[in-house]
Amino acid sequence: MTHEDSQDYSRKHPTGEKADSLLAEAVARRAKDGKIACTAAFEIASGRGVSPSEVGKTIDLANVRLVKCQLGLFGYPPQGKAVKPARNVSPDLEAAIRKRLEEGRLSCAEAWEIAKGLKVKKMDVAGAAEKLGIRIKPCQLGAF
């Protein structure tokens, strides 16, 4: 998305694309001041039995801003991101991250799986990736 499109999230999708009305209602109920938290988006996906990307598309089409990424990568004013590079990265965590890289990047979904498997916080995985100079992309909700 270009800077000019930054407030029109619907432009990420083909013209005329429509959101599921029930998802759109759920997003509207959870959004506050034109924003919705990542956790709320995942709760909608889980509760409705749909993929996070479907909820993300609905959020985009409603031009609602996604905030408070669970990996700490965006949506934390005023600095934007909450995650900080880890001071140290354990060999197990580094190995798990490097094993799951695709084209030099770690997907959001893989970061979550690593956190679950190693029983660490999601932001700890993101902090390790920051320390290792590894970019996390793509987002499960389609934010990046």
Characterization of the model:
With 144 residues, the protein is mostly helical. The chain has a two-stranded parallel sheet with strand order 1-2. It has a two-stranded parallel sheet with strand order 3-4. Helix 1 packs antiparallel against helix 2. The N terminus is likely disordered.
- Please provide the count of β strands: 4
Rg for CA atoms = 16 Å
> What is the number of helical segments per DSSP (H or I, 4+ residues)?
6
Largest sheet: 2 strands, parallel
Q: Could you tell me the strand content as a percent range?
A: 5-15%
N-end to C-end Cα span? 9 Å
Q: Which strands sit side by side, in order, in the main sheet?
A: 1-2
Q: What global shape is seen? A: elongated
Low-confidence stretches: 1-5
Q: Which structural class fits the helix and strand makeup?
A: mainly alpha
Mean pLDDT: 94
How many separate structural domains?
2
Helix content: 40-55%
What is the string of SSEs from the N terminus onward? HEHHEHEHHE
Sum up the structure in keywords.
single chain; disordered N terminus; 2 domains; elongated; two-stranded parallel sheet; about 140 residues; two-stranded parallel ribbon; 6 helices; mainly alpha
In short:
It is built from six helices and four strands; from the N terminus they run H-E-H-H-E-H-E-H-H-E.
Map the helices and strands.
Layout: H1 21-30, E1 35-37, H2 38-48, H3 52-61, E2 65-67, H4 91-99, E3 105-106, H5 108-118, H6 122-132, E4 135-136
Parallel strand pairs: 1-2, 3-4
Helix pairs in contact: 1-2, 2-3, 4-5, 5-6
